[in-house]
Amino acid sequence: NAGVTQTPKFQVLKTGQSMTLQCAQDMNHNSMYWYRQDPGMGLRLIYYSASEGTTDKGEVPNGYNVSRLNKREFSLRLESAAPSQTSVYFCASSEVWINEKLFFGSGTQLSVL
Amino acid sequence: KNQVEQSPQSLIILEGKNCTLQCNYTVSPFSNLRWYKQDTGRGPVSLTIMTFSENTKSNGRYTATLDADTKQSSLHITASQLSDSASYICVVSSSGNTGKLIFGQGTTLQVKP
Description:
Oligomer: heterodimer
Radius of gyration of chain A: 13 Å
Largest sheet of chain B: 6 strands, mixed
Number of strands of chain A: 11
Order of helices and strands of chain A: EEEEEEEEEEE
Structural class of chain A: mainly beta
Strand content of chain B: over 45%
Shape of chain B: globular
Radius of gyration of chain B: 14 Å
Number of strands of chain B: 11
Shape of chain A: globular
Structural class of chain B: mainly beta
Low-confidence stretches of chain B: none
Number of helices of chain B: 0
Distance between the termini of chain A: 36 Å
Mean pLDDT of chain A: 94
Strand content of chain A: over 45%
Helix content of chain B: under 10%
């Protein structure tokens, strides 16, 4: 039972580089989410996919794009990384939208220099 | 503005002692309140979820309380263990089709031998 798997665990980028964070869940969940966690702040929602085939902006979507590739996979792309995007990124999933328990991946620590 | 405030910001206790973490929220409309445990370098893991009508819920040595009138919740940890060292995050869910989760900034607990 892997749960929610994120790759990579660590990444260092230079300003302007692009990268994609991968997330996969094996719990047959309908909803998936991308959050960022910064020191002294609560987790903030970047994008979410309430169900396969749909994606919507969260509270901090600028500079990011997402793809719900299939029911299992939800990727987050940084097209042109900026130092302000240095953060820890978490993917999460739930059986249905929001009011169910979230299951989180172990996170990706991203540094943009 | 929807907010979740946690106190204290950090806490150090001796192994075997009890402690209580606080969460005050100003979220409306309210759907449920959750407590998560986040070990260093890992994603948050759900401890409890309480709806409006529930005022106490336990998960082993963790007991959460909810007072929906005063919009306060607490997480009580009994007979602490070294493995309880972690960040504890209070999360409030706002109801509706555009429902959202509002995360507190967390309380960092260190249990010393």
